[in-house]
Amino acid sequence: MKGKRAAAIVLRQFYLYQGSPARILPLFGWVAIDVLLWGFFSRYMNSIASSGRNFVPAFLGCVMMWDFLIRVMQGVTTTFFEDVWSRNFLNVFASPLSISEYVGGLVAASIANSTVGLLTMLVLASAVFGLSFFIYGLPIIPLVLVLFVFGVTLGILSCAIVLRLGPAAEWLIWPLPALLSPLACVFYPLSALPRWLQVFARMIPPSYVFESMRGIVAGRGVSFGTFAAAGGMAIGYLALAGWFFTHIYGYAVRTGLIARYSAESVS
Predict the structure, then answer these.
(1) How many of the other CB atoms lie within 10 Å of CB of 111?
(2) What pLDDT does 231 receive?
(3) Contact (CB, 8 A) for 244 and 250
(4) With the C-alpha atoms ordered 35, 38, 40, 42, is the resulting torsion angle positive or negative?
């Protein structure tokens, strides 16, 4: 794998943003709206709660981390979709670029996009609602990394699905975070789910992350076992997603599917 080739994917995205200011606004706009919406909701919950509990770190913090995961996923998928939308997909894979270099470029572009979004959320949450991530302590670092790895996993999996089913399958991808959010337990504890649904919730890393964040705010801390379970699953799912994308790409090349790629479904 050559880093310069992977960096070319990021450079292409930079030129796209440079040539189209309309692409830059969503990097800041949507995250700002989310922080303001849920921040004011958290402040309202503080005003009506009789327990005196501060909902800003317990609620707004979790919402921000879920938003971060979505930005990571969309950073991967949007970079991939840019090649699909511009009918440039076949040209990319006609170049010496390898699969690992291409996927590495997608991940690097996602890091840049999600970092901008995360910094925007941190500044707004701190300035407007007084939320400091120092309240979570050092454990927040591995928790953020788990969400990042799982977001990349969802992005790579989404790219593989679109590669196999065609550009029309894009509409199956955008709702994916919303479909997973009930199991991720972003807005409520794991115990709020029915017992049979808790089994499935424990199979995805975000549920451990958000349970841990609520535990930190409540003063319970985080166990090493929680880190190990969430991190191990996130890395395992990432490896599976990478294998799946490589398998789908190999299928597309063997069957000539990649040469017939167009704006409609392919079979």
Answers:
(1) 16
(2) 92
(3) no
(4) negative
CA distance 252 to 259: 8
261: confidence class by pLDDT, cuts 50, 70, 90:
low
The pair of three-digit structure tokens given for residue 4, joined into one six-digit string: 């310069």
| Residue 28 scores a pLDDT above 50 | yes
- At 99 the pLDDT is 85
**Domain residues of the chain, as ranges?**
3-260
Percent of the chain with pLDDT over 90: 28
- Specify the residue for token string 């409520």: 188
Q: What is the pLDDT of residue 180?
A: 92
Which residues have a Cβ under 8 Å from the Cβ of 201 and sit 6 or more positions away?
A: 183, 184, 185, 190, 193, 207
Q: Decide if pLDDT at 265 tops 60.
A: no
pLDDT of residue 263: 46
Exposed e or buried b per residue across 55-92, where buried means at least 16 C-beta atoms within 10 angstroms of its C-beta: bbbbbbbbbbbbbbbbbbbbbbbbbbbbbbeeeebeeb
Residue type, 4: K
Give the C-alpha separation, 124 to 122, whole Å.
6
